[in-house]
């Protein structure tokens, strides 16, 4: 029996690189007795031969496959009673649908939160990291722009500037509790 409900969905924490998704997801997961923090971006590294950079147009088939597998993993943990949070660059027009499809096939409710910080903040944070996979400024900007002008999904945005990760995790927890980040089935 699924453990999620509109009051306890599987949250997908998204946004451009450098917004603090992984740190915030870890903090949120630590607030639950049994929890799993799935870093979706790691699943792309499992593709060894034939890998296509996931931000390129020709990566669509690979992205659907990988995000479906992320959804299956999240569904497996959630079905066994773990609070499961998925963190990654889950771009609405490329990655969100296949991930949500798998979670909903498992009869799980889904929440979607987008962390958004100014491009300059994201770029500075990425430069400060020791290992940066996404070091190319044009790629960073392209991914950042993927989370601008989201239409109906703007209500899922948590706009940040210099907030501490704990503050963001608290805000995210409140928004999850009130149900304002839950995705409705279309």
Walk me through this protein's architecture.
This protein is globular. It has helices spanning 21-30, 40-44, 60-79, 92-105, 119-128, 137-145, 165-178; strands at 10-14, 35-39, 83-87, 110-116, 157-159. 36% of the residues are buried. The model is unreliable at 1-7 (pLDDT under 50). The protein has a single domain, classed as Rossmann fold. It has a 5-stranded parallel beta sheet, sandwiched between helices. With 186 residues, the protein is of the alpha/beta class. The protein has 7 helices and 5 strands; from the N terminus they run E-H-E-H-H-E-H-E-H-H-E-H.
Briefly, what is this?
The chain has helices at about 20-30, 40-45, 60-80, 90-105, 120-130, 135-145, 165-180, and strands spanning about 10-15, 35-40, 85, 110-115, 155-160. By secondary structure, it is an alpha/beta fold.
Mind sketching the topology for me?
Elements: E1 10-14, H1 21-30, E2 35-39, H2 40-44, H3 60-79, E3 83-87, H4 92-105, E4 110-116, H5 119-128, H6 137-145, E5 157-159, H7 165-178
Parallel strand pairs: 1-3, 1-4, 2-3, 4-5
Helix pairs in contact: 1-7, 3-4
Q: Structural class given helices, strands, pairing?
A: alpha/beta
The CATH topology name reads: Rossmann fold
What is the succession of H and E elements?
EHEHHEHEHHEH
Average per-residue pLDDT, rounded, comes to 87
Basic shape: globular
- Strands in their spatial order, largest beta sheet: 2-3-1-4-5
Radius of gyration: 15 Å
């Amino acid at each position: 029996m699924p453990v999620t409900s509109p009051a306890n969905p599987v949250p997908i924490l998204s946004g451009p690189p450098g917004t603090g998704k992984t740190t915030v997801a870890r903090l949120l997961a630590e607030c639950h007795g049994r929890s799993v923090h799935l870093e979706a971006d790691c699943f792309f590294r499992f593709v060894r031969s034939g890998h296509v950079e996931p931000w390129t147009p020709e990566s669509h088939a690979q992205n659907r496959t990988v995000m479906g597998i992320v959804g299956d993993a999240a569904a497996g943990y959630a079905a066994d009673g773990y609070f499961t949070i998925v963190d990654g660059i889950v771009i609405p027009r490329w990655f969100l649908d296949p991930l949500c499809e798998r979670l909903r096939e498992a009869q799980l409710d889904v929440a979607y939160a987008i962390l958004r910080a100014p491009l300059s903040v994201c770029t500075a944070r990425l430069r400060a990291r020791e290992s940066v996979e996404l070091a190319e400024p044009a790629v960073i900007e392209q991914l950042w722009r993927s989370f601008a002008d989201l239409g109906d999904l703007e209500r899922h945005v948590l706009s940040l500037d210099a907030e501490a990760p704990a503050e963001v995790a608290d805000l995210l927890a409140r928004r999850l509790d009130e149900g304002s980040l839950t995705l409705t089935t279309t």
